[in-house]
Amino acid sequence: MVDKDHGSNMQSFEWMVGSWTMKTRNGTIMETWVSLNDSTMGGESILIKNTGATEQREKLRFICTRKEYFYCVTMPGQNNNEEIKFRVTSFADSSFVSENLQHDFPKRIIYQLINKDSIHAVIDDGEVPKKKFDFFYSRYKN
User: Fold this and answer.
1) Chain segment 47-77, per-residue pLDDT in tens
2) Furthest C-alpha separation in the chain
3) Under a CB-based contact definition with an 8 Å cutoff, are residues 120 and 132 in contact?
4) What is the domain extent for residue 93?
5) How many structural domains compose the chain?
6) Alpha carbon of residue 63 to chain centroid
7) Cα separation, 93 vs 74, whole angstroms
8) pLDDT, tens digit, for every residue of 25-38?
9) Would 11 be classed as within a structural domain?
C-alpha cells in the first residue's frame, strides 16, 4: 500500500459505501456504509440472527479531520459506550490500515476491496499478530 495525500475528503474510501454481508454460524453480519458529507461516512454493523432477530454490533464512522483519517467504532456495552478511534496509517485506492496501539483489542483494523463485490477485513493485535480475525464480506444485493 502506498500512502497518498488526497487532501481532506473521503473520495479514496467511497468503495466502502453500500451494504456488505458475511454468513456466520449464528446468522449474517451486515455492515452498511453511507457517505454523509465530504469528511464523514457513517456506518453500522448488525447481526441478523438465524432466528430473524437483529442485534446491533457496532456503530461506525469514518472521518477526516485536519487531513488525518480515522476509523471510529462504538460497541454497545464496551469501553463505557465510548467511541474508539483508529488512525489511518496507510491507504491506497482500495484498501486502508488503521491503528490504535493503546487499545486492548483490536489494535489494528485493515480493509481491502478484493473486487467490486468483495471486501476482506481483518482485525488483529498489531504488526506481528498473535490474535487475528478475518471477515470476508460480499456486496448485499436486494
Assistant:
1) 999 999 999 999 999 999 988 999 999 999 9
2) 46
3) no
4) 18-139
5) 1
6) 12
7) 26
8) 999 999 999 999 99
9) no
